[in-house]
Description:
Blueprint: E1 5-9, H1 17-27, E2 31-35, H2 46-51, E3 56-60, E4 68-72, E5 76-80, E6 92-97, E7 109-114, H3 128-141, E8 150-155, H4 169-178, E9 181-190, E10 196-205
Parallel strand pairs: 1-2, 7-8
Antiparallel strand pairs: 1-10, 2-4, 3-4, 5-6, 6-7, 9-10
Helix pairs in contact: 3-4
Amino acid sequence: MRFSLTTWNINSVRLRIDIVAKFLKSARPDVLCLQETKCIDDAFPLKRFKRLGYEHVALNGQKGYHGVATVSRIPLREFSRHDWQDNGEARHVGVELLGPDAAGAQGIVLENVYIPAGGDIPDREANPKFGQKLDFLGRMTSFDFEVTPFVTVASFQRDADSQRLQPAPECQIMLLCQNLCWCHDCSLIAAPDRSQHCTCGDGRFS
């Protein structure tokens, strides 16, 4: 199975829609996953994405904060929404890729996640945000994903001191995903506004 996928912490999709449009016209990934969209669903620039050929959309938005969106040239259906913090924050949307135009990826479930930031002090007692992040990752990694194959993409919010953890909680997520899928030609790209997106081409899933 092969398709191209980009994941991008966009930090306000409405503010950066022109940069996103320029990228999509150039790279043309099959699927784009956005985190930190910072808008409610009704305010999402849906028409702009549809004009670019991304007619299939799953949104989980929130005013001013958080928010995730998956836009696709491949038909999809929203599959799930999980609140791993149990606080109402919009941090996840899952979709299933559908139809004969699914570029060989029909049936794959794609989980798009915006992981909380943990701050700079890797100590649960001294830094409550760090504890919240560990709890989120713990619930996420222990979640029983019933459907395979699936792909998890996320804004991991790597914190300054998180590399001191052994093992780092971010690595738990990556190991979980690598057990189920792998990609060729994966590159991290810095956009002109210093945001970053990761593009995976020639993804192959077993």
